[in-house]
Amino acid sequence: xxxxxxxxxxxxxxxxxxxxxxRGTEFTYVGARSYEEGLEKAKGQKPVVVLAxxxxxxxxxxxxxxxxxxxxxxxxxxxxVILVGNSAPYDNAKGVASGVDANLPKxxxxxxxxxxxxxxxxxxxxxxxxxxxxxxASAPTATPSGPAGSSNRLPDRxxxxxxxx
Length: 165
Prior knowledge:
The chain is α/β, with parallel strands linked by helices and about 160 residues long. It is built from five helices and seven strands.
């Protein structure tokens, strides 16, 4: 069964970048362009993680989306990663108040995004306390698991950085 990644961003460009980022991985990309569509798809699609832009347009924010998801019994266990651009840095106070699991800057590096998503999904599935509101965007390290010599590291991919204005 495919693991759904729901990306809520009002930018068509960022939706395309997210779609490309998750092609050929264990994850299936699903996009939403607004707060309302994101809530609806989170409830209906049951994603393993929600990536939400900090500013969603129409006066809504990714922090508000996160708070709505965390306060609903049907979606409270879904980890939320806030995506922040250069124009508005991550707001730690809002992140803590809304229950954000992690944050990443836009533009993102493909490998860093895949590793962060893998990390928050693994932690959520294991019941480990969330990575932490205000968690930095540093790339996590692979943790060995399974037989000797194996790891949970995602497949090597060519780094890709996208710059959006």
